[in-house]
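**User:** My hope is that you can spare some time for a protein that puzzles me. I have put the entry right below:
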Amino acid sequence: MPAPEPVRLGRKRALPVSPNPLFLRWLTELRDSAREKGLKTQHVYNKAIGSLQKYPLPLENAREAKILQNFGDGICKLLDEKLQRYYKEHGPDAPIHSLPEAAPPAGGPDNNSLAPNKKSNVPQEGKKESGGGGGRGGGRGGGRGKKREYVPQKRSGGYAVLLTLYRHIQIPGDKGYMFKMELQNEAQLLCDKSFSAPDLGTKYTAWSSVSTLIKRDLVVKTHSPARYSLSEEGASLAGRLASEEQGSSGGPEQIVEERDRSEENDVQGLVDLTVSDEEEKSVTPPVPGRPAWESQARGEAAGPSVSGEAQASEPSGGRPSGGRLLPGDYDIILCVDFIETTGGSNHCKQDLVKELQRNGVTFDVRKLNVGDFLWVARERVAPIPGQLRAPEAKELVLDYIIERKRMDDLCGSIIDGRFREQKFRLKRCGLSKPIYLVEECGTAASHMSLPEATLQQAIINTQVVDGFFVKRVQDVRESAAYLTVMTRYLTRLYQNRTLVCRSRELEGDGGMKPSLPSSSSTPSLSLLSFAEFNYGAIKNKSQTVREVFARQLMQISGLSGDKAAAILDRYTTLCSLLSAYESCPSEADREKLLSNIRYGKLNRNIGPALSRTVYQLYCTKGPLS
């Protein structure tokens, strides 16, 4: 009987190397490029890589790969084009079943074509050199090398964000973080894709790459509104990118000069709608064929504008964040919430649209997170020859916003508590002219859940106590007529104004700040962009501690939005209020702590009864009686 074969101890046998490493490398580059751009084709390339890795026979050209799963005409055509270029560079007899000298290993899970090359003549040697830092792929088969560092592609969204944050922290006295709007505006200069408009056929923008930076711990996102800053790893990577940028282009001054020369040579091209520290502070006249937005200088101090006005020559204080619209370069457009045009058991909502069309009003139906109607100043842009779509028009929100209420809707909102919340959100939306448009129901008001006297009192309180302008109409036709008159009035009011974009993130999320000047001699107005306004009005977005505290206070019967705002001015959070209660010497002082706080236009006291209720709510240890 033959002796049993001895048991062989040791590491597992290395997996066989793919006989088509060149095709694997090209597919990996295509996948990493699609991943960097946020395209879904990355998953198609990934499946093709898996199929090719399992195929044991060498391929002479890409057409032979059609028999493999996940290989279609598109992928085979791309690989054939790369193969033809490879033959032109290395000769017609160049080997295709082995990688050239100093080529990176192909087929790794996180390869990036822009990462620094690791010298690896043979995949097995690359495995030995990887040592202990090779990640999950370092100790396995010979075809997998060290996990490669993520390096964003030049002029991509991630590249621009890292470089912008790095340049900001080099400024002496910098706050160490940037808000979304200012980060997008400054990073646009370093990126070929738009941070706001997606490419044709996709929903992704350059800003989509920020999620990758956060996932890889290169960028840190904190607070609400979001603040973006670099981590230690991100600062190290951004420093290397900055040194390479300076080495290749000669520094930021040369970048600005080259950009200015390219704009002069290509008058019909797109203009970067952003601002930078190097740009001049003087306002240049618009060039024919360009959009009306002009790049603005960013001041070092970011103090909020008190009056909301911005001077045309010196944009100090409010600090414009996205450029300006000159008189004659924009149109006033009525924006209608899509809820006002769809649904309902009757055709009243469609009647509103028909009436606006009959009156010749230019309007746009879209989703509004607060209010039912508002107006925007939309930039006039001309289509560019050779491009399918015209450049994205910038939109600034005028200071007028309308909440439309039918009597039955008003009754329902009072019962379920939406009425107070809507008024509070309208006050905090950043627009200084909120309007309530109330449609009477005639005799139908007598058949509602609340008495008609209660509804009328609620309307009067909205105008007298809360400070809203209330417009009463009889039906949908009168509502459309009022919107028509308001559109024509605002068109005349703003026709000779220069409109400058401002950011609430840089000013602090305050309440309504009037931006319409009292004298007609002031040529400039400071307005919010529609994107920032609508995002800031999202109802269910993440809230700050201050906002949650305000919502808690407004649930108390008799505590209106003005009273809650007055309490928040004195005690910004619940923790500060509880600390104030603890510092009071006696029980009576705690109950009267809020009684002398003044609120509203009449500067009335909150009073001892409401102050006692708040104290009992937060300081009673047992159940409330």
Residues 409 and 419 are 10 Å apart (CA to CA). The chain has a mean pLDDT of 76. Residues 476-494 form the longest helix (19 residues). The radius of gyration is 32 Å.
